[in-house]
Amino acid sequence: MGMDKRIPELLRAFGESGCPLCRRSAQHAARYLRNLLSEYVDDLPTRRSLRRSLGLCAEHAWALQGVALSLKGSGSLATAVLYEDVTRHVLAALSEYLTQGAAPPPRSGIRRVRHWLERRGRWGRCLAARLPSDEATPGGDLLAGLTPREPCPACAHVEAQVSGDISVLLRTLTDADFRAAYGASDGLCLPHLRQALSLAGNTGAAQILAEVAADRLRLLHFDLEEHWRKSDWSYREQARHPWEQAARVRAIAFFGGEASEQDTEAALAQRRWARAEYHRHLRGQAGATRPPAGEIFGRPGLDLESPTFDPGEPRTREAATGLDPEGTADPCDECEAQRPD
Asked: Which of 96, 204, 222, 263 is most buried, most CB within 10 Å of its CB?
């Protein structure tokens, strides 16, 4: 395995719950914001970039407040200095508009030509209608001054860093130990999976990414099916397992990405609970046995072609998904801490 400094950081992310690249994105953002307040307040290129972007996006601006609180008084002062600069820039644009807004705009050459043609009868009016518009958008100059000319610098930094992580991930998947560590992780969320596949092309790395994603989705699909099936009155006496109820949260995390620290506390608590139940079950507890598919054949809405509903012996969660309960790793410390009493 190579000595790239990103490799041990990726390995640590594999050992945590959730999408490892979502976790890396949060780490990159937190590191950037802390460095911004601690070291780059007086950096002229940074100040210029913030002026052109009109500050940070909403997500990173509010995350900056959390970082500022952790830095005590210096963080709040640094935030004030950075945004004083941006505020002065926007105020200058507003003041210039209010000062010059009452002055009549000069007549352009196109306006004079249009005015001349419109006085030449029907054909002149037809030709005048074909001329390009010379009317400026009301407040057009002001709108330009209030529109960001660059993306949020924190977003640009995180995107560049995650692209570097993906490049290392794809390159290092050829290593057996690294590949095994990724295979034991929760895999990538769909947005990061798409981004990784776009860079992987038709390679062995793309095959590995697809295999891991398919394994995780089989497990997710089975739990979603079970949660839905057990809501039927006919199966009300069957135990409803918490990892099945948490599958809906795992589905949201897969299709939309992990919850960020700026989401509501309720959303974060739901995601922590779903991860804890998922990993608690992966420790090797016996799978939930479902009744023979013959008993539920013909129910409206069921996909009778699905392997989950083949007739025959009752199938466990492990049998339906290919999960080996003997080969699962212990849960991460974070998930163990979220385990209900």
From this structure: 222
Reported as a single tens digit per residue, the pLDDT across 67-109 is 998 887 788 899 999 999 999 999 998 988 888 764 555 555 6
Q: How many CB atoms lie within 10 A of CB 128?
A: 17
Q: Which residues contact 312 (CB under 8 A, 6 or more apart)?
A: 292, 293, 294
Could you report the per-residue pLDDT of 318-339, keeping only the tens digit for each? 555 555 444 444 444 554 455 4
Distance of alpha carbon 182 from alpha carbon 160, whole angstroms: 21
Give long-range contacts, CB 8 A cutoff, 24+ apart: 205-212. Answer: 205/169, 205/170, 205/171, 205/173, 205/174, 208/173, 208/179, 208/182, 208/183, 209/173, 212/182, 212/183, 212/185, 212/187, 212/188
DSSP 198: H
Residues 6 or more apart from 20 whose CB is under 8 A from it?
10, 13, 14, 182, 185, 186, 188
Amino acid at 260: S
Q: CA 6, 10, 11, 15 torsion: positive or negative?
A: positive
CA atoms of 62 and 199, how far apart (whole Å)? 31
CA dist 269 and 276 (Å) reads 11
What's the token pair of residue 81?
């200095």
**At 37, is the secondary structure helix, strand, or coil?**
helix
Residue 26 CA to residue 72 CA, distance in Å, equals: 21
The answer to whether 134 and 110 have CB atoms below 8 angstroms apart is: yes
Q: Give the SS3 label for residue 108.
A: coil
For the chain, what is the largest distance between any 2 Cα atoms, rounded to a whole number of angstroms? 91
Domain ranges within the chain, ordered by starting residue = 6-97+148-170, 216-337
The radius of gyration computed from the CA coordinates of the chain, to the nearest angstrom, equals: 29
Asked if 47 contacts 82 with a C-beta cutoff of 8 angstroms, the reply is yes
**What pTM, to 2 d.p., does this model score?**
0.68
Residue located via tokens 């013909």: 298
